[in-house]
Amino acid sequence: MSRTTEERPRVAPEIKERYEAVIGLEVHAQLKTLTKAFCGCSTRFGDAPNSNTCPVCLGLPGALPVLNRKALDLAIRASLALHCEIHQRSVFARKNYFYPDLPKGYQISMYELPLATKGSLEFELEGAVKRVGITRVHMEEDAAKNLHEGFADSDRWSYIDYNRCGVPLIEIVSEPDIRTPAQAYSYLTTLKQVLEYTEVSDCNMEEGSLRCDANVSVRLRGAPKFGTKVEAKNLNSFRYLQHALEYEIVRQIGVLESGGQIVQETRLWNVAAGRTEQMRSKEFAHDYRYFPDPDLLPLLAPERLVEEVRAEMPELPDVKRARFLREYGITPYDAEVLTATRALADYFEAAVRAGAPAKAAANWISTELLRRLNEAGKEIQDCPVPPVALAELLAKIESAEITAATGKKVFATMFDSGKRAADIISAEGMSQISDAGAIEKIARAVVAKNAENAAKYRAGNEGVFKFFVGQVMKETRGQANPQVVNDVLKRVLAES
User: In terms of domains, do 259 and 293 share one?
Assistant: First the structure.
């Protein structure tokens, strides 16, 4: 493996504007199964190294693979969600290359006859809808994981954990329809959302459940042919993907502008240095010597099977957003926020089913709840306030038992303690004060204490009124009924 180090390239904006990028993404998603693609070993992450292995995934002589039916169902589900044409007959192939992470010396994948082709994925960016074609979705097994430690040649060790070897994957290959790093980021974000909604994959990038390689080239705007593409690897976050593409586009433009030629190669994204670095010359399909796997029969996915999977398909994000707008009358912004994840959308609907007004629930979840979760570093699945408890709190605000301001204090205590709203309100005496006589007594004391401001109000300075409202609310610790406060103050201040 050879790597070169290069200074960060720079290109003048007017030169960069003369070029456009052509980007295609290859996304590997680990399927959400309990066992591996072709054997019964566990796919559980974090187990002791090499504990989830057997003769099949270790490639021992005489061991024969058997396809995991659940993996097939999930692959079909992903293909349907991406609007692909699912082929009734596909073929597993052997992709031959020799590396320590493949004990068999080949990877079981698909080549000429994949599971599905001709799909698409749409996303919105800067107010416009962008459609990216999906070339193919095919099934394959993962390789093992290489671990390296040490730096000096005399003290460098490499280890292999075969637990990951044989884990079921789908590879989703896009058409070269992406033109900017921002589009690539949005495409990957939307794809992740679809895979999570359909429960095809947990898409945990930290555990390697979602990995992405990018093919990128540049050409003069309007040129009919694509430029020479470079593959960028090691993109284990959406932000790294965007940064690597930004760097690589500028680098390639710089090479072309200086009279050089782009070499088809694979480059790694060096996170620390903020640049791509040469890894190896790019392989071609014939380098892998694909041929049908003789141990696996052709994969048949008849229409009956596809329809069974389609019948169990969960609601997709775009469909759910449209339904939220139609059924709940919430804003497009709130619908976008609430459907960001399936778990968050489920929480919202559970709160509404428990009696929460839809618009109020959307507002509280989008602001108070998500802010608290973010501050606590929690996901919605770990929220200490269940949907029914939020509905109870909102009911008390709607019935004027407590004010909205008090409701925020109650919610904060609910989030920190796990207690119910009724218990907190009772224990801390937070019920709303609606007794006009009690509020009038406080209002008269405030007006008497601020005679100068009262004179200004009576002289026509109505802006001072907010001052008096604030003072009364302060005296009642925010528990006074705002409407009663307004009515009483107007009457008291009108007296000469």
Answer: yes
Check: CB of residue 186 under 8 Å from CB of residue 239. no
Q: Residues 6 or more apart from 58 whose CB is under 8 A from it?
A: 103, 162, 165
Q: What is the pTM of this model?
A: 0.83
Q: 365 CB contacts (<8 Å, ≥6 apart)?
A: 337, 338, 344, 347, 348, 351, 390
Say yes or no: 446 and 400 in one domain: no
Mark 191-218 as b/e (b = at least 16 C-beta within 10 Å).
bbbbbbbbebbbbebeeebbbbbbbbbb
Q: In this structure, how many other beta carbons lie within 10 angstroms of the beta carbon of residue 165?
A: 27
Residues 368, 474 within the same domain: no
Last residue of a domain, which of 304, 336, 354? Answer: 304
Closest CA to 20 of 223, 294, 322, 280: 223
Beta bridge partners of 218: 21
Q: What one-letter code names the amino acid at 325?
A: L
28, 30, 36, 38 alpha-carbon torsion, rounded to 10°: -30
Q: How many residues does the chain have?
A: 496
Are 484 and 405 found together in one domain? no
**Strands of the 291-292 sheet, one edge to the other:** 106-110, 92-96, 291-292
Indicate which CATH number applies to the domain containing 441.
1.10.10.410
d(CA 320, CA 343): 12
CA 440/CA 447 separation, integer angstroms: 10
Per-10-residue mean pLDDT of the chain, 496 residues long, equals 56 91 97 98 96 95 95 98 97 90 93 97 93 98 88 77 97 97 96 96 92 95 93 86 94 94 91 86 71 95 96 95 96 95 96 96 95 94 95 90 86 92 77 69 83 79 82 78 79 77
Q: What are phi and psi of 300, to 5 degrees?
A: -105, 130
Give the position of tokens 């994840």: 341
How high is the pLDDT of residue 7?
Answer: 61
CA 463 centroid distance within chain: 46
How buried is residue 123: exposed, middle or buried, by Cβ count under 10 Å (0-12/13-18/19+)?
A: buried
Same domain, 292 and 329: no
377 lies in a domain? yes
- The overall longest dimension of the chain from CA atoms, in Å, is 102
Residue after which a domain boundary falls, among 374, 409, 428:
428
Distance from C-alpha of 193 to C-alpha of 73, rounded to nearest angstrom: 19
Helix H or strand E segment including 137: strand 128-141
- Per DSSP, helices labelled H in 67-136 are 69-81
Task: Report the number of distinct structural domains present in the chain.
Answer: 3
> Residue 440 is part of which domain span?
436-494
Same domain assignment for residues 332 and 242: no
Residue 6 domain-assigned (yes or no): no
DSSP conformational letter for 283: P
Q: Are residue 321 and residue 456 in the same domain, yes or no?
A: no
Q: Any residues with CB less than 8 A from the CB of 452 and at least 6 apart, and which?
A: none
Same domain, 276 and 405: no
